[in-house]
């Protein structure tokens, strides 16, 4: 098996820097867009054959060193009693949003092996179809990000309602975040049992918090997830955006690999994380929309800052944007491998 990615997670030497991309399966790929003409996002997530097909599309099209399960962060919400849907042009909409202590009290903890069995079936199907070509990454959302979606009712620019609950009803916030931590830890455990070889916890929105608030309102709950997963021995990745001021605290919360976004130089970020952890990142995704030469200069800078140290996984600082040209992604992956082989 191509185990570059797993070796880098463990700070072991590799023959070339491993590459994978967040949202490497998605709207920038013509094959995926063709499938979306016939199926909604949730239909693809709920049908193992389709979800496996989409997961494999970039493995066949791009020289990546890991596959990431095609799914959605919000899938655990519905079995908890938080209904949501995807509205064209708006993204996910939670209706009704979570706005009261009474609603939080009514949330259900559920058995992911039953309520999200289709995700686990997708994982088992993928392990067969991948035939160990590359490792399979599972994932879930972190408590702060999931709670923010539920409270705001969808994406937000200031997280005002989320923070109002945090500050005004701290007991209710911690109850909610702990419920999410328990659900996510159990869901990721089920993914590991089904066959994923690494897991990433996405805290995409946590950069909205100050370091002090992160330590009080997010760290204990994210830490609970990583502590639960530790005995399984699979690599764990911890990702957020806008986290330059949070990196030491994120390290404390957990993760064998800490994701760095493009707002901080890779070497500076690695210093904050600590050299006994691996790092992932951190090219700006919008560089893939500009001239190829500029994109490759940016990638070269990332690699220079990593200095060939064991434990660097090349990725973008966030997901591939839908308007990105597939050929650019392929060129970038090849460049990283050629430069570091």
What does this structure look like?
The chain has 341 residues and is an alpha/beta fold. It has one domain (4-340): TIM Barrel (Alpha-Beta Barrel), CATH 3.20.20. It is built from 16 helices and nine strands. The protein has helices spanning 4-9, 30-36, 41-46, 48-61, 77-80, 101-106, 112-115, 117-130, 143-152, 160-168, 170-194, 211-229, 247-253, 266-273, 292-306, 326-340, and strands at residues 67-68, 84-87, 91-94, 136-141, 198-203, 236-240, 257-259, 278-283, 312-316. α10 packs across α11 (170-194). The longest helix is centred in the middle third of the chain and has 25 residues, at 170-194. The radius of gyration is 19 Å and the shape is globular. The relative contact order is 0.14. The model has no long low-confidence stretch (mean pLDDT 97).
Short structural summary:
The chain has 16 helices and 9 strands. With 341 residues, it is of the alpha/beta class. It has a 7-stranded parallel β-sheet. The protein has a two-stranded antiparallel sheet with strand order 2-3.
Characteristic key phrases:
alpha/beta, TIM Barrel, 16 helices, 12% strand
Helix content: 40-55%
**What is the average of the pLDDT values?**
97
Largest sheet: 7 strands, parallel
Beta-strand fraction estimate: 5-15%
Distance between the termini: 17 Å
CATH structural class: Alpha Beta
Number of helices: 16
CATH fold node name: TIM Barrel
Domain tally: 1
Reported CATH architecture = Alpha-Beta Barrel
Query: What structural class should be given to the helix and strand makeup?
Result: alpha/beta
**Rg, alpha carbons:** 19 Å
Low-confidence stretches: none
Taken in chain order, the helices and strands follow as HHHHEHEEHHHEHHHEHEHEHEHEH
Overall geometric form: globular
Number of strands: 9
Strand order of the largest sheet: 1-4-5-6-7-8-9
